[in-house]
Design brief:
Helices cover 0% and strands 52% of the residues. It is mostly beta strands and 115 residues long. The protein starts with a strand and ends with a strand.
C-alpha cells in the first residue's frame, strides 16, 4: 500500500497519479485526490498492495497556509474530490505540478510530507 503521513503542522490535501493501463476515459494513467490529512495522521492513498504496479507514482499536496509539495509533471485537477483518467478535466480544473515518487518495487511505501 502507499501511505502518506502528514508531518507538517497544518492539514494537507494530497492527490496522486499512477499507472492504470486502459483507463476507461483514455490513456494508461489515473489521477485521484483529495485526501485531507490532519497533522500527525496518515491515509492510505493506494492499496492494498503495490506489487505488480509500475514503480513510479506522482503526488501533489498543499496546505491552507500556502505550503505546496509540487513538481514538474503537470495535469488538470479540480477543487473537489476526483478519480479520473489522466487527460480528464473540467471547467473548474487548474493545472497542478506533481512530484515523482519512486517506490522502487516495494510492496508497501510510506511518503512523509514535512517542511
Amino acid at each position: 500500500m502507499l501511505r502518506v503521513v502528514n508531518s507538517y503542522h497544518r492539514e494537507i490535501s494530497v492527490a496522486i497519479w499512477y499507472y492504470h493501463p486502459n483507463c476507461p476515459d483514455g490513456g494508461s494513467w489515473s489521477k485521484k485526490g483529495w485526501w485531507r490529512i490532519t497533522p500527525g495522521n496518515s491515509k492510505v492513498v493506494f492499496g492494498p498492495s503495490l506489487s505488480g504496479h509500475n514503480r513510479y507514482f506522482t503526488y501533489h499536496a498543499f496546505s491552507s497556509d500556502g505550503a505546496v509539495w509540487a513538481g514538474p509533471y503537470g495535469t488538470l485537477v479540480p477543487p473537489q474530490a476526483f478519480d479520473w483518467c489522466l487527460p480528464t478535466g473540467n471547467t473548474q480544473s487548474w493545472r497542478a505540478g506533481f512530484r515523482l515518487l519512486d517506490i522502487n518495487g516495494n510492496d508497501n511505501f510510506t511518503l512523509t510530507l514535512h517542511r
